[in-house]
């Protein structure tokens, strides 16, 4: 499973840094890249993902002024729909981290999971509760 394949290789001039997203009255619907759920659910899902981003925004693992975020709703072949958000380099569009607050895969159902460039997205960097993920980002 590769969670780094969704990258924007050419930056859209409309992309806002994470700092801008968190400090402005951002329309969470504009942060969605792809979804399989019903469209009317995206706002509530987006608000929850934005809150998760806020909880790790003080991380030293990424720079809020040189990264952007997008949301993705996923439909695994073995499991149920789940949401993630991806933190990307604003210059290259490369995904740095894929953060799944609650996995939909049968093998990791309900667990929070982080994939990232630290290990080339080969396997989860960390998996467990959301609090464990927060602690990792803020350590």
Describe this structure in words.
It is a single chain. With 139 residues, the chain is of the alpha+beta class. It has one domain. Helices cover 22% and strands 24% of the residues. Strands 1-2-3-4-5-6 form a 6-stranded mixed β-sheet. Strand 3 and strand 4 form a beta hairpin.
Q: Give the radius of gyration.
A: 14 Å
**What is the overall shape?**
globular
Helicity range: 10-25%
Distance between the termini: 27 Å
The H/E string reads HEHEEEEEH
Please count the beta strands (DSSP E, at least 2 residues each). 6
What's the pLDDT, averaged over the residues? 91
Structural class: alpha+beta
Tally of individual helices: 3
Structural domain tally = 1
The unreliable regions are 4-13
Strand content: 15-25%
Largest sheet entry = 6 strands, mixed
Strand order of the largest sheet: 1-2-3-4-5-6
Task: Break the fold down into its secondary structure elements and pairings.
Layout: H1 18-23, E1 32-34, H2 42-56, E2 67-74, E3 82-89, E4 95-100, E5 112-116, E6 126-128, H3 130-138
Parallel strand pairs: 1-2
Antiparallel strand pairs: 2-3, 3-4, 4-5, 5-6
Quick overview:
This protein has helices at residues 18-23, 42-56, 130-138; strands spanning 32-34, 67-74, 82-89, 95-100, 112-116, 126-128. It is an alpha+beta fold and 139 residues long. The protein has one domain (18-138).
